[in-house]
Design a protein that fits this description.
Helix content is 37%, strand content 12%. The chain is an alpha+beta fold. The chain has 2 domains: 40 residues, no CATH class; 81 residues, no CATH class. This is Protein FAM173B.
């Protein structure tokens, strides 16, 4: 099979016709990889580098168990809306407790996973190491 070549009029050298396509494809691949991997590399440049640690299936099961138990004891079909504040490392629990005391309405329920609120007694808990869950009534 004969290879198709084009000569460059400026230099007289033969230029492969797919060269710019290959170069563009490589550039696009590098750009996509950079964009995709930046989400994983960016946390390394934070002042305090902490990994994202999602809730485990056991912890999610414990949350479901404690919510079902509390719903049954409240004789209610629902406990109201649920807000997931995300994951953390437990350093803000004291400040969070103060904020919750100031801003939550009476009879509000709070479920804390992995880290308890420091000075508020919990109404119920399932303690199983890092999968622990604590239930509070305000």
């Amino acid at each position: 099979m004969n290879e198709l070549t084009i000569s460059d009029s400026n230099s007289g050298k033969r230029v492969h016709p797919y060269r710019w396509g290959v170069i563009s494809g490589c550039g696009l691949t590098v750009a996509c990889l950079t964009y995709t991997l930046s989400a994983f590399i960016a946390p390394a440049f934070r002042r305090v580098c902490l990994p994202f640690v999602p809730a485990t299936p056991v912890q999610l099961d414990n949350i479901a168990k404690i919510l079902l138990t509390q719903r049954k004891s409240a004789c209610s079909s629902t406990l109201g809306p649920i807000v997931d504040l995300g994951s953390g490392d437990g350093r803000v629990m004291g400040e969070l407790e103060n904020k919750l005391r100031q801003e939550l309405k009476p009879n509000t329920f709070v479920v804390a996973g992995r880290f308890p609120l420091p000075s508020l007694p919990c109404a119920d808990s399932i303690e199983s190491g890092p999968d622990s869950v604590y239930f509070y009534r305000f």
